[in-house]
């Protein structure tokens, strides 16, 4: 692409008939930036940094010609201008955009930084604080915001006016009627050095907390700072120096892997050519924790939603939950409260099945009880139209069992949202052997419209996400009941693995009672290799259920948990009775808690419940918060050395005979280790 643009520029600049140059995109995009599969190749190649440096130099040279060549240039931005696309637009002497155009530098999401002058031109167009925020978040700016910020000079009302307007601006520049602005030389918007430095250092502190030892945010901020103090040219050199080594950093490799893995997820073999049907009217059964989040999300996305509860009181509470979620989101996004009325207008609360005959999809999110769910699905078959998709949000129950009392198994599917449903990106789509291909395709389409990452998985207890992570909680429980402090385990997982919260903080969040209930179901299915803890039961008996009762492993003031060593001591003593006290290092904690997750992931792979290895990585990141900059649980395991993971599990299996089956590496993992 760079070479093609350079060639076209050369021709245009040499042609006396050409007065000015206008860039636009051929399709829906202006330009979407880097070739990411190629970046992956570079990230893994030993010469990656050198090849990158050469490419960056060519990019800078090209941007120089665009910005300061013999003829004025204008970007006619007809759609997304992302990464290198926005860098090209910023090098142009003016930008004209449509109302639907968007502008972003998402490079940091890939563990790299903008490499064609983005770190220098954006601060000069919109100011340091705005530029730092845009680059560190990687979020694209919509047209109106970009125009307000100064990134776009003019917005056209109708797409058909884009090119004529851009040409007019370009010709006016060529005729000297309009100044030819060069972003790299702009001084009016960058602001004072002191204020710029303040914005950079503030962002550095925030990003250190978030980026957990990854180098790209600091590299980006350093390059911006050089530009601020030493000028744009020096800043470009700093940008190039910082970018080239980043490409082979472990975090860039991991984030690029994660990006490509996520892009693969919606591609399910066998569904080629099947178009998702339109889903517009959806009923949700149950307005509890999950149902309310699902309803709120759908209202945001413009669906007509029916919410059914068991009685008026529960319905009132359910609607209140939905209202609270929506108002919190509106407040956070600084949107007017009128949006609430508009959203709620599309909600129909009910205690009956009225209106279900019009639904394209029903999502059941009621209590986790097989008998009740079976009865509800039998009812749904009677009241819904024959094409309606019947989905369950169960977290553990076999989907076939839920549909056992119906003749509608071809349209029954699991749509497993994660809590909070309006926030967590993963939507596990569980297909049984009876679920039709059309229903799977519809579910993927629905997930995409909700902005979720759809991962299609097979039907087994715990499905994929909860199944691969059940050993996580059980291993921690084994350590705790054998003398290791739960708060130490949480600290180690956060500081060494970079999990967003410790395992006991997670248990407190979802509920100690839920954990005990789920362990029962998991133990029934995978009992031979489970560790069944007693601690949870003792806490449950004392109503220490976690955040919902204000105390669990931690004591809560609002959502903030504080360790409660004294309060926990009698429960620990009871749970540890008759068990040996073991001594472990921090590294051993990491291995004993995380490697069993790798082992169970291997079992899921061996049983064919996921389409590809990388789906497991996506599930671990989007469902359980495993850090994206480590690429997902299997990617991380491979980086650790699969043979090492296997050996260490075998070691723990031998060292702790009471849990020897829990730690024993499965055949699939042993095979991987042999091949490694
Ligand atoms: N809480 C989680 O973290 C989580 C995560 C993923 C999946 N799930 C699953 O989602 C489902 C709901 O979980 P939850 O945490 O929202 O439960 P919850 O107890 O908060 O809410 C359940 C709601 O369903 C209502 N209900 C019960 N029977 C009903 C019926 N016949 N018709 C309509 N409403 C009925 C109840 O009144 C209650 O308001 C369960 O299957 C659970 O396993 C939960």
TrEMBL record:
GO molecular function ontology, one term from the record: isomerase activity
Main subcellular localisation: other
Keyword annotations: Fatty acid metabolism, Isomerase, Lipid metabolism, Lyase, Multifunctional enzyme, NAD, Oxidoreductase, Peroxisome
Ranges for domain 3-hydroxyacyl-CoA dehydrogenase NAD binding: 281-459
Known pathway: Lipid metabolism; fatty acid beta-oxidation
InterPro entries per UniProt: 3-OHacyl-CoA_DH_NAD-bd, 3HC_DH_C, 6-PGluconate_DH-like_C_sf, ClpP/crotonase-like_dom_sf, Enoyl-CoA_hydra/iso, NAD(P)-bd_dom_sf
Pfam families associated with the record: 3HCDH (PF00725), 3HCDH_N (PF02737), ECH_1 (PF00378)
UniProt-listed GO biological process terms: fatty acid beta-oxidation
Localisation per UniProt entry: Peroxisome
Protein name, as recorded: Enoyl-CoA hydratase
UniProt source species: Lotharella globosa
